Amino acid sequence: MATNTLSTEKKFIWGGGKSPFSVSYGKLMMWIFLLSDAFTFSSLLIAYGFIRYSFQSPIPNTIVKPLAHVGHDFVEQMKQAGLFVQDHWPSPELVFNHFPFIHGLHLPLFFVSLMTFILIFSSVTMVLAVEAGHRMAKDEVSKYMLLTIIGGAMFLGCQAWEWTTFIGEGARLYGNPYGPRSFAALFFIVTGFHGFHVFSGVVLNVIIYINVLNGTYEKRGHYEMVEKVGLYWHFVDLVWVFVFTFFYLI
Amino acid sequence: MEHTEHLEHTETPKDMKSQIWKTFWILFAFTIIDIVLYFILLSYHSMIKNWLFIFLGVVKAYYIVGIFMHMKFEKKALMYSIIIPMVFVLFFIALMILEGDYTNILRWIK
């Protein structure tokens, strides 16, 4: 055991004999990558902030109450009522009001709240996997990683359903029935880019999960890879928190 | 290298698991607060509403980065290297929200 820990300690010391910030090379590089990725997402959100406010503020909605009954031609009705117009940014609670398997009810922001909850919960299972890794508890790590993968896959499914619904209503990159052209374009680009990160996160998690099952990290003597992939997953969750805040609330 | 010093991460508290679950409930509560506030403040159209939502987002970010990503327990230098650039970026987003008005006004003048 003594020689094992000595060799693992060696791994965490970089070439010059020191460990900058007292972290391993892989972990620091993951942090720096996350910082750069945060810049990329921020550039999209910066553009969103400017474009959103270059249009008139959403027309306040006094007609449709939550849990009210809405027909199939809801979008048409909103256009008639003058709530979906070209020069006003649409009110998010009138656009994001559907829920899977529940037709005809106005459920503003319900579905996106569910998606947020799913992603936060998958983040919790991820950090529990990391914590189990510190205790070298292989079975717990694999259990929590599996839950994280399932959570990520559920989120992707939800996002795919959301996209399908919008494309069905006529939202495209070049136009949409809710208001200015940029609305759907920004929505698809930002959520698409984020969804791509969730997808790659799920793929990474699956690879690490298989490694955990095979005992690769038991042999290595530490579960640091789970921690690194956990950092990426939490980053994905963090970006979603901000996308949710900016897109749906502001 | 006589002493076996753990270098891969700085101290993890003994009650990490309970901290994790506490943080989950805090994040859950703040998400609920977000939604509820959105509907309560629906009829108000001030900039203060936006600052409030951004502030709530930053609070959630504090817990996700601090506890889930372990940043609270890392060396301060690493924490500042990551946080300080993001403060500037957040400021940039807020600034663009304020400046978007300019294009709006231009559209009306046309």
Count of DSSP helices of chain A?
9
Q: How many beta strands in the DSSP annotation of chain B?
A: 0
The SSE string of chain B, one letter per element, is HHH
Quaternary state reads heterodimer
Quick one: overall form of chain A? elongated
Mean pLDDT of chain B: 84
**What is the tally of helical segments of chain B?**
3
User: In total, how many beta strands of chain A?
Assistant: 0
Largest chain interface and its two residue counts?
A: A-B, 69 and 61 residues
In which range does the helix fraction of chain A lie?
55-70%
State the CATH architecture of one domain in chain A: Up-down Bundle
Strand content of chain A: under 5%
Structural class of chain B: mainly alpha
Net shape of chain B? flat
Describe the overall structure.
- The complex is a heterodimer of chains A (250) and B (110).
- Chain A has 250 residues and is mostly helical.
- Chain A has a domain at 22-51 and 111-249: Cytochrome c oxidase, subunit III, four-helix bundle (Four Helix Bundle (Hemerythrin (Met), subunit A)), CATH 1.20.120.80.
- Chain A is 69% helix and 0% strand.
- Chain A contains nine helices and no strands.
- In chain A, helix 2 (25-53) packs antiparallel against helix 7, helix 5 (110-134) runs antiparallel to helix 6 (138-169) and helix 7 (181-214) packs antiparallel against helix 9.
- The termini of chain A are far apart.
- The mean pLDDT of chain A is 91.
- Chain B is mainly alpha-helical and 110 residues long.
- Chain B folds into two domains: 16-73; 76-110.
- In chain B, helix 1 runs antiparallel to helix 2 (47-68).
- The termini of chain B are far apart.
- Chains A and B meet through helix 1, helix 2, helix 5 and helix 9 of A and helix 1, helix 2 and helix 3 of B.
